[in-house]
Amino acid sequence: MSAVEVVNPNADLVRHADATMMNINAARGLYDVLKTNLGPKGTLKMLVGGAGDLKLTKDGNTLLHEMMIQHPTAALIARIATAQDDVAGDGTTSNVLIIGDLMKQAERYLADGLHPRLVCEGIQAAKGRVLDFLEKVKTDVPVDDRDFLIKVASASLRTKLHPELADLVTDIVVDAVLCVKKPGEQLDLHMVEIMSMQHRHAAESRLVRGLVMDHGGRHPDMKKQLNKCYILTCNATLEYEKSEVNSGFMYNNAEQREKMLAAERKWVDDRVQLILDLQKKVCVNGEDFVVVNQKGIDPLALDLLQKNGILALRRAKRRNMERLTLAAGGVAVNSFEDMTPEDLGYAESVYEQQLGEDAFTFIEGPRHPQSCTILLKGPHKHTIDQMKDAIRDGLRAVRNAIEDGKMVPGAGAFELLAHADLMEFKKSVMGRAKLGVQAYADSLLIIPRTLAENAGYDANDTLIKLQEATAAGKTVGVDINSGEPIDPSSIGVWDNWRVKRQMLDSSAVITEQLLLVDEIIRAGKQIKKPGPGADVAYQAEAVLSAGRRGCAEGCCGAGNVFGGARTQGAGPSEASPRVLCGSDWHVDSPLGRHCARAPD
Known about the structure:
- The protein is α+β, with helices and mostly antiparallel strands.
- It has helices at about 5, 15-35, 60-65, 70-90, 90-110, 115-135, 145-155, 165-180, 255-280, 300-305, 320-330, 380-405, 415-425, 435-445, 445-455, 460-470, 495-515, and strands spanning about 10-15, 45-50, 55, 140, 190-195, 205-210, 210-215, 225-235, 290-295, 310-315, 345-355, 360-365, 370-375, 405-410, 475-480, 485, 495, 520, 545, 550, 585-590, 590-595.
- A six-stranded mixed sheet has the order 7-12-11-8-9-10.
- α2 (about 15-35) packs antiparallel against α5 (about 90-110), α6 packs across α13 (about 415-425) and α7 crosses α12 (about 380-405).
- The relative contact order is 0.15.
C-alpha cells in the first residue's frame, strides 16, 4: 500500500510507469490536435460552443483557450503554451508540437529501461547548447525598412489567414505599428484599436489614422459630416446633477420653485456658453467644432450646441477618451472655466456612419497621430473573428522585430541548423545523457516535417533533402509550394528571435518536469468555510440536484446518514439553492445522525 493511501484511503493514485505514460499520452493528444494547424497550408478547426455557436480558427492560442481540456497534464501543457503567446506573442502551436514529440522521443528510451533523470540531464544540456546556438544564428535586420517589416508581418499572417486576405491585412498591420511608434520609447500596441463592422466585404478593411468610436451624436439634427475640425475632449458634466450629499431645497410658492429651476438651468447654460465662446475664438475661417464628453449632456444643451453647428458626443467610453487626445492631440479638460485654444485637438474630417441601429463616428486626418484604428469589415462573424486573431499575432510579430532588431531564418531552417549542431554536440556528451540530447534534437525536426506534411508532400523525402542541403553548409527551409529546399531569407520568411528563445526554453522545462513525475495523486484537500452554529469541523455548501436542495454532506436527502455513503436524495424544495447545515438540524438514531430537514 502506498504511503498516500495510508494517509488518505480515498485517494486516487497512479504510480511509476503508469504515471509517465499518462503524461506522455496527454502530450501526444494535444500534439495530434494541433499538428495539422501548423504553417500556411495548415487546416482549420471548427469549435462548437454549448449554445451551438461556431468558431473557425487555426490559431493555436485560440484553440487552447476555447477548448475544454479536462486531462490535468494536457491542461498544464495548454497553460504553458498559452503563456508563450502572452509573453512572446506567437509560437503556441510550435511549442505544443515540440513538447509532444519530445515526450514521444523520450518514451522510446524509457521503454528500454533508461531512468528519466538521465533523459532529463541530456535534455537540459541540449537546451543550453541550442540557446547558445540561437544567439549565433540570429541576424541583424533593418527594422526601419517598411518593406522588410511587411515580409515579417506576411510570414505571420499567412499562417492564420487565406493568402489574399493576409496580403491585404499585412500593409494595415505594418502601418498601424509605425503609426504608434515613438522614438526611444517602447511600443504600446494598446494604442492600436481594432474595431469591427459586420458590413460588406473583408477586402474593404482599412487603417484609420485616427479614431473610430462606436457611438454617434445624440441630436437628430446635428451635422453628420464636418471638415477641418477642432475637437474639445472633456470630462465635465453638462447636465444638472444631484449633490453627492443628502440635501434638500425648501420652497413656499411656485415663484421660488421657478427661481430654483432657472438657477439650475443657468448653471448648465453658463458652461455651454463657455464652449460657444471658445468656438467663436478658434473657428474664424469656416472650421467646424466637435465636443466629445465622457459625462452627460442634457437635451437643452445639445439643442443649443446643434444650433451653433457643433457636433456633440456624450458619455463616450473611457478607452476612447484616453486614445482621443493621442490620436487628435489636445488635452482632456475637467473644467470649462480655464479652457484655451491649446487644449483643442484637430482632425481634417469627422463624420458619422450609420449601420443598422449602430452609429460609428470617424475622426480622421489628425496632424500628428499617436494612436490609430484598424477597421475590420466582413460579411459574417466568422471572418471577422479570424481576422482579429490574425491581426493580434501580426501586430506583435512586427513589434518584436522592431524591439529585438534581430530575427532567425524561418520555414523550419533554424530547427534544421540546430539539429545539425546538436548532433555535433552529442559527440562530446559522455554517458547515457547523450540519449536525451538525441531526443531533443530529433524533436526539433517536427517543425519542418509537419510543414511538409501539411503542404501535402512526403515528409521523409522532404526531410532528407533538407538535411542533405544543411549538411552541405546551406541555410534552407521548406518551400511549401514545391516541397524543395529554399533559402528562407530570399522569400522573406523570418521568425522572431524572442519567440524561438521562449519556445525552446519552455518546451524543454515542461518536458523535464513531466518526465520526472512518478506519482499522480488525486487527494486534494477541500477548503471549507465554517458557518455559525455548526458543531462539525467544517460546513459544506449545498448542491442543487434536480431542482431541489440537498446538503453537500449528503445528509439532507431522504434516507441519507451523516458520515455514511453520500447518495443524492431529494431534499425539501426552497427558494434559495444553497443551505448550510447546522447542529440543530441533526438528530441521533440507531443508524447514525440523520438530518431533521430530510423527508420521512
